[in-house]
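A.,

Following up on our hallway conversation. Structure tokens first:
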């Protein structure tokens, strides 16, 4: 029950919903996406011009609009330049995506194994000082295996051994009777051909992570529920951000007097490039949940630091940490949060 209440509270915090109903709306502008990869996706064979960057910006806009307390719009290049050079801006922040790596692979073994991996930079701008608040790197991946025909399912068991791990994101059962026809093959993929692939899904996964991280930048402003306050939303930006992970399991060599754990942070964990590094010290946090008598704030969550761990090994998506400070009454254990706090450059 405690976990359920905590989860509900977190959802309210991230969506910007206020119990009092006075939550300030946040205005976000989205600059044109930069594509440094050379990858192009055509609108159609009748309109052979690249639409990938616009589709990425539009998807980020859709994600922002899922929050009832965020207004978002995409700017073209001319409007972006006016926004950057203008003296009066009615918006709270600006964000920009940059696609700087896109790896798309496919191979054929009784079907098609497609995999995509993209890296995207997220830039967040303060509208008052027109400064980059932060630059972060996020990763998106996706895989899909599709059988060529229904007959191939009889040979499926024999082929699995040679496919490695083809079903990390599931089997495309809807492709059992051949792939859907998406039109004549062009020198560039058209949007109708591209949007159903794991390559676009990998980009969407990266954009979703970029959205989540940009919302963290304005979470304090979203949670501000005083409509008469003189401070504007842009004054509520935090000059630091937190990388949050969880303790997953003890290592095989962990001992009572030298406790080592595997955590859910690594070089790319949570989308940050080099999220944790060897030698860094992380806080271990545990929260207590209390039921209050206030109908507007029925639940109070009070986090507290119960120990510290030091990073001793780093992998792409995980790291190994060693407990260096502990609370005897509340010792570090599985499911505890590990937190790294970083200052934003220039602050």
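Then the amino acids I'd put at each of the 347 positions:
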């Amino acid at each position: 029950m405690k976990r359920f209440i905590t989860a509900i509270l977190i959802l309210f915090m991230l969506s910007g919903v206020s119990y009092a109903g006075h939550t300030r709306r946040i205005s976000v502008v989205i600059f044109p996406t930069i594509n440094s990869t050379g990858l192009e996706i055509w609108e159609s064979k009748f309109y052979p011009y690249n639409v990938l960057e616009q589709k990425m910006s539009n998807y980020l806009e859709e994600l922002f609009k899922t929050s009832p307390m965020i207004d978002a719009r995409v700017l073209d290049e001319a409007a972006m330049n006016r926004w950057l050079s203008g003296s009066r801006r009615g918006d709270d922040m600006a964000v920009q995506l940059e696609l700087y790596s896109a790896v798309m692979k496919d191979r054929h073994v009784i079907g098609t194994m497609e995999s995509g991996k993209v890296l995207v930079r997220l830039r967040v701008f303060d509208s008052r000082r027109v400064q980059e608040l932060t630059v972060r790197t996020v990763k998106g991946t996706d895989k899909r295996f599709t059988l060529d025909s229904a007959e191939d399912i009889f040979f499926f068991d024999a082929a699995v051994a040679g496919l490695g791990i083809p079903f990390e994101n599931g089997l495309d059962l809807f492709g059992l009777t051949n792939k859907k026809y998406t039109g004549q093959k062009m020198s560039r993929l058209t949007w109708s051909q591209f949007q159903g692939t794991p390559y676009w899904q990998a980009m969407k996964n990266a954009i979703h992570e970029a959205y989540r991280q940009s919302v963290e930048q304005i979470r304090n402003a979203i949670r501000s529920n005083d409509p008469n306050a003189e401070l504007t939303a842009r004054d509520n930006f935090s000059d630091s951000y937190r990388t949050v992970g969880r303790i997953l399991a003890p290592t095989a060599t962990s001992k009572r007097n030298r406790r080592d754990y595997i955590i859910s942070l690594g070089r790319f964990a949570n989308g940050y490039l080099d999220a944790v590094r060897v030698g860094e010290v992380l806080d271990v946090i545990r929260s207590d949940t209390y039921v209050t008598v206030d109908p507007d704030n029925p639940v109070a969550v009070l986090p507290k630091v119960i120990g510290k761990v030091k990073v001793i090994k780093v992998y792409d998506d995980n790291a190994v940490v060693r407990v260096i400070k502990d609370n005897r009454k509340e010792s570090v254990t599985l499911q505890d949060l590990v937190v790294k706090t970083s200052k934003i450059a220039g602050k």
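The CA atoms of residues 101 and 119 lie 5 Å apart. Curious whether your intuition agrees with the design.

B.
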